Amino acid sequence: MNCDEPTDDPDREPAAADESADSDAKPRSTDARAVSRRIRGALPVDTRDRPWLVLAVLPGVVAVAIYLATNAYPAHGAGLYAQIAVELLANGYALPVRIPGYTATGVPFAYPPLQFYVFAVLLDLGADPIAVSRLLPGFAVVAASVPLYLLGRDIADSRPAGAAAAGLVALNPQVLEWHVSAGGVVRAFGFLYAVVAIYAGYHIFTRTNREEALPWRVIAFGAVAFGVTVLTHPVYALFVVVSYLVLWGTLHRTPRGLLSGLAVGLGGALLAAPWLWWVVATHGPGVFAVAAGTHGGIGGGADALRGSLSPGLVLAVPAVLYYLSRRSVFLPTWLVAAELLFRQPRFAYTVASLLVPAAVAAFARAKAVGSTAIGFGPRRARDRRAAGAVILILLGTVAGGAYFAHETTSPSDPSTPEYLDDDAVAATEWVASKTDADATFVVLGDAAEWFPALSDRTILVGPWGVEWESGDAYQRQVTAYETVSRCESVACVEDVAAGVAGDPSHIYVPKDRYTVRGELATNSGTLVRSFERADGWERVYENDGVVIYEAVGDTDPR
Fold first, then answer.
1. Which of 467, 169, 486 is nearest to 296 (CA)?
2. Comparing C-alpha atoms, which of 193, 150, 169, 177 is closest to residue 349?
3. 228, 303, 436, 532: most buried, per Cβ within 10 A?
4. Which contiguous run of DSSP H or E holds residue 212?
5. Phi/psi of residue 222, each to 5°?
6. pLDDT of 83-99, one tens digit each?
7. Greatest C-alpha distance within the chain
8. What is the rounded CA–CA span in Å between residue 41 and residue 1?
């Protein structure tokens, strides 16, 4: 896909110009070179982008390396995702109607399926689900640095600004928490596809604004990128839609621009249509409304209007004011829209990461005009700016990496808490081999999210996937899960379980430290002592980190 070249390097030449034909080569070699030149000519980069692309990708590589070095198990949860992949395999790659194991009756499958197919293929090839959840998101985190660089480069008209934008996103803990962790098997790829679609949209609207011929190749590229985003994650698809509306409203508010954007939207919808039709036919159209906004996706505007802005956005205020002083409203409007419409700050932080370097680049160019007037040539001024940008990006990578490493190694680990450890995995292996297939469990702590996928047994309490049932059902399960995970008596556990799902056959109790929805919790031993004294429960398994009790006698629900 061709794109406009940034003008911060006036003597920039396309990559194809660096290639020379070898008249003495064999015809086959000449054909190969011609194909290579066409491919390179279609890419929106040239040889001058290469060092800046390295700098753009480096922070993402550093972040992923730190995460893998400090997390022996995947952060957060992807157990439900792994179970979905297992059900896809069991169903011959046909979409399953429900996913068993999560609550007594299972949960509806209405998730966008693309990344679950990727997960299923990897499992089919023999990969371990824990390893997939730990390793796969990192590829998307690093890959997203490329379209972020291109988008930042073209918005700012500056390669250093593009590299800085990619680095700011890659090392932002608020973004990494959602992308490099286990859930990144879906979210990180949704983000990658969304940024590609927005990059295409930027060029669609800037080109139509200059009255150029409609860029049909770019429209087709954007439609495919939007379609795979829809097939990956609904919130990231909404981010693309909002971004296109901002692009149209601020860069090209004409019927021609609107039609270009609609072409992308309709093309993406057509690509996703078979899945959308299946979901509506299977679960009804209301399933999407039920899931919307249940757990932190859409609707952050109320908090923002009350003054609860994402803290990091304070740093973007000078850049916003600078652009407004120049009567340039695209980036400020995009930032406001992202902050108001999405509860999770990762979207606003992404826009801010593009806005701040672009403002710095614009300000530096304005200052460079003054430097030229007092005796510095334009090339010398550009070289000084480039050297300064390299130093800042490298220093930022070191500082950001150090801060992320500090977070991942802190006792609370707010960004990448692990839901599993060796003891939890050993306990699920015992459950899988030593308990009846119809055994039902209440699992305290975040190991519950992985429990059905690793043990092939059912948990009665847990919110994962319940958002597709109803908002009330989801909230009941969230409340029950948080309550039972902090119980300190047998009666508390039994009452919570009875309130949402009846009587379990087994109770899984973590010892010492564990997490509840990512937050550190500590078991003082009170609950274990309560079970040891209680009638109707027998300890059937124990290791250093987990105790499992089974209902016995007259209280056995089976």
1. 467
2. 169
3. 228
4. none
5. -65, -40
6. 999 999 999 999 999 99
7. 94
8. 8
Percent of the chain with pLDDT over 90: 60
Q: Exposed, middle or buried: residue 491 (CB in 10 Å: 0-12, 13-18, 19+)?
A: exposed
The pLDDT of 214-226, averaged and rounded, is 89
Structure tokens at 124: 């089919």
Judged by average pLDDT, the poorest of 62-76, 297-311, 351-365 is: 297-311
Tokens of 521: 């919790």
Nearest 10 degrees: CA dihedral of 69, 70, 74, 77? -150
Percent of the chain that is helix, strand, coil (3-state, to 5): 65, 10, 30
Q: How far apart are CA 268 and CA 271, in angstroms?
A: 5
Q: How many whole angstroms separate alpha carbon 167 and alpha carbon 353?
A: 8
Q: What is the mean pLDDT of residues 60-86?
A: 94
Give the pair of three-digit tokens for residue 343: 């509860």
Tokens describing residue 198: 């927005």
pLDDT at 137: 97
- The two tokens of residue 79 are 């157990």
What is residue 557's three-state secondary structure?
Answer: coil
Structure-token pair, residue 190: 């949704």
Question: Residue written as tokens 């995460």?
Answer: 67
As a three-state string, the secondary structure of 393-435 is: HHHHHHHHHHHHHHHHHCCCCCCCCECCCHHHHHHHHHHHHHC
Residue ranges with strand state E in 426-518 = 440-443, 458-459, 506-510, 512-516
Across the range 357-380, mean pLDDT stands at 68
Residue 542's beta-bridge partner residues? 547
Confidence (pTM): 0.88
What confidence score (pLDDT) does residue 381 get? 62
